[in-house]
Amino acid sequence: MQIGYARVSTDDQDLALQRAALVNAGCTRLYEETGSGARRDRPELRRMIDQLRTDNTVVVTRLDRLARSTRDLLELAEQLNAAGAGLRSLQEPWADTTSPAGRMVLTVFAGIAEFERALIHDRTRSGRLAAKARGVRFGRPASLTADQLELGRRLVEEEGRGVRDVAKVLKVHHATLYRALARIETDPARGMS
Q1: How far is residue 187's CA from residue 185's CA, in Å, rounded to a whole number?
Q2: Can you tell me the distance from the alpha carbon of 21 to that of 86, in angstroms, rounded to the nearest whole number?
Q3: What residues contact residue 143 under an 8 Å CB cut-off, 6+ apart?
Q4: Which of 47, 61, 115, 185 is the most buried (most CB within 10 A)?
């Protein structure tokens, strides 16, 4: 069975052209929705995927109606494959996983996407290492300044006040102060991180 999926981005747009093309292509069931293709939580798309059966073919007028990025397209194609279903685009004849040539093209795209992800990962890792070497700190900023931490330490250790009370004075959660004080005990230079 051929199942059509149609999507427009805004309520101002009309699904009529996509609907007509999908019906002309032989789709006996249509799933239609309005929303950005970048959104992953598209209810009609999810419902369609959940109801797919072996040997169904999902038909779209153009691939950008199904996914906005190569990664999303490949993930969706993998979900369809896992359900035993195929994918076919009316505007992009090479995008037809029901044929050996279409599966090969999609496999090549998957390899390129994986290569691109690996390159991005390597560049990001190299950039982080270089930034750390320059002294850049990553993560959330410290909740307590050095002065606040010293005041907190004095109030707890020298004046004997409770950590919860001191945390209220410093306007931080008591767990934050506990962690900072524990870091001072193990490594005084790290107390602020």
Answers
A1: 6
A2: 18
A3: 172, 176, 180
A4: 61
Q: Which amino acid is present at 154?
A: R
CA distance 139 to 91: 45
58: left (phi over 0), alpha (psi -120 to 50) or beta: beta
Number of DSSP helices (H) and strands (E) in the chain, helices first: 7, 4
| pLDDT tens digit at each of 193 positions of the chain | 999 999 988 877 889 999 999 999 999 999 999 887 777 788 999 999 999 999 899 999 988 888 877 778 888 888 898 899 999 999 888 888 888 887 788 778 767 767 877 888 899 999 999 998 998 888 888 888 888 889 998 998 888 899 999 999 999 999 998 888 888 877 655 454 4
Q: Among the options 9, 69, 89, 143, which is catalytic? A: 9
Partners of residue 57 on adjacent β-strands: 2, 86
The structure tokens listed for 120 are 């991005």
Length of the chain: 193
Is 89 one of the catalytic residues?
Answer: no
Q: Which of 138, 131, 144, 141 is nearest to 184 (CA)?
A: 144
Q: What is the four-CA torsion angle of 62, 50, 79, 64, rounded to 10 degrees? A: 20
3-state secondary structure of 52: coil
- Residue at 35: amino acid letter: G
Instruction: Retrieve residue 81's tokens.
Output: 């494959």
Tell me which residue of 82, 80, 88, 83 sits closest to 105, measured CA to CA.
Answer: 88
